[in-house]
Structure formats: structure tokens, C-alpha cells
Specification:
The N and C termini lie far apart (57 Å). Strands 1-6-5-4-3-2 form a six-stranded mixed β-sheet. It has 139 residues and is of the alpha/beta class. It has four helices and six strands, in the order βββααββαβα.
């Protein structure tokens, strides 16, 4: 018998105490905190890379909007960084991330939150995206 998958969007702070691991290709100040089984984390991150900002055409991982991901005991907890107060993209990104994780991690309870004390800055974006955005601004 398969476990029912519960999905929730929680407007609360992110879980603390996750293992710090640098995100490949991103600056050290944009660390993504990961905890959980490697296979599940890789499936989840691959799914999250497909969640794209429609205005920029960049993914939420590349943009540096993912603060932490913790997977354990049939639960996945994703914490996103807000772009700013009252940003309409925050809810859009959370909804899309939630759906992507549901597809990648069936039979897992998924919780998505925004950390209200963290705000996105361009330094969180991948170096490739930063260069592309600089080219748009100066080109």
C-alpha cells in the first residue's frame, strides 16, 4: 500500500541545522544547505532546476532562490529566499517548486517555506547568470 503524499506551503522560517554544502558553480556566500540521502537530493535538485522564472528564463536554483533542502523520514522541506517584500514571483516559485518536488519524490510529504529574514541579492545567482545579466545591463 502506498503512502498518501501531503503537500503544504508553510509561510514560516526554514529549518536550521542543515549540513552546509556549497552549490557547484556558485559563489561561497550563496551556499545551498542540503541534508538527506544523496539519490533523493539529486532527484529533487534536478526537478527544481526545471522551475524557471518566466521573465528571466532562469531556474530558481541558478537564481539562488533555494536556501535549503532537507529530506528525511518521508518528508522533504524546501526553504526559498524571497526576492523582496510582496513579490508575486515568490508564491509562483513556491507553487512550481512544490509541484516539481511532488513529481520527483512521490510518497513524500513536502513542505515549502520562505525565510522572511533572508532577501535575494544578485550575488546569490550563479556566475554564468550574473555574467548574462551584466551583459543585458551593459549591452
Amino acid at each position: 500500500m502506498s503512502r498518501r503524499t501531503d503537500i503544504s506551503y508553510l509561510p514560516m522560517s526554514c529549518p536550521r541545522g542543515l549540513a552546509d554544502r556549497p552549490r557547484p558553480g556558485l559563489p561561497a556566500d550563496a551556499d545551498l544547505r542540503l541534508a538527506g540521502p544523496t539519490g533523493a537530493l539529486l532527484r529533487a535538485l534536478d526537478a527544481l532546476r526545471g522551475v524557471r522564472d518566466p521573465a528571466l528564463g532562469a531556474g530558481i536554483v541558478e537564481l539562488g532562490l533555494v536556501e535549503s533542502l532537507q529530506i528525511e523520514d518521508g518528508e522533504a522541506r524546501l526553504c526559498l529566499v524571497g526576492i523582496g517584500p510582496d513579490c508575486p514571483m515568490c508564491d509562483f516559485a513556491a507553487d512550481r517548486a512544490l509541484r516539481a518536488l511532488q513529481a520527483a519524490l512521490p510518497d513524500t510529504d513536502i513542505y515549502v517555506s520562505h525565510d522572511p529574514w533572508l532577501e535575494w541579492t544578485p550575488s546569490r545567482a550563479s556566475p554564468a547568470l550574473q555574467a548574462r545579466l551584466d551583459g543585458v545591463r551593459h549591452g
